[in-house]
Amino acid sequence: MAASLKxxxxxxxEIDNISEDLRVxxxxxxxxxxxxMPLIVRISNQSHALLPNVYNLAFxxxxxxxxxxDRAELTHEDYSKVFSTILFSxxxxxxTNPDHYLGIDGSDNARAYFYYRALQxxxxxxxxHFRMFGVKYFVRITRFGKTQYDNPFDFEDIMPYPFRIEKGxxxxxxxxxxxxxxxxxxx
Length: 187
Fold this sequence. Notes:
- The chain has four helices and eight strands.
- The chain is α+β, with helices and mostly antiparallel strands.
- An eight-stranded mixed β-sheet has the order 1-2-3-4-5-8-6-7, with helices on one face.
- The longest helix has 18 residues.
- About 6% of the residues have low confidence.
């Protein structure tokens, strides 16, 4: 993944299609090999079971079954433009639904850390538009190995409590958010 992502809502891919309710949009990204790849941004219809009023935002290419493959490993020509387009879609949705929150899942530790670093690097820009939260959402047994502790569960990891993301806050391996929540900043 890209080392230095720069979010800029003036540097976007053209949105090809967008649903009337702004829950689904598509755009073409350009990969390093020059190939165009359609990406889907989809906001769930139902709120999260444990986080009321949080709607999951998924993005990626479609797999063979027509589902978003949010674990696809693509090599984008311009990661900044890809993530700016995704977050711009989120912003448009939230402007129409200001009482909603959107959640993005860091599907593994590497992606979660990448998302957090990107939020930190772009904090000043994103903070103008969003309030941002991190959730330690899953019990991570495999991170340390099953034999490291008598009880490998970190019970704070199963509490879906959103912590406000602040500029410059460091996250360590054992205190890492893997679900990120945004809502519209209303001044």
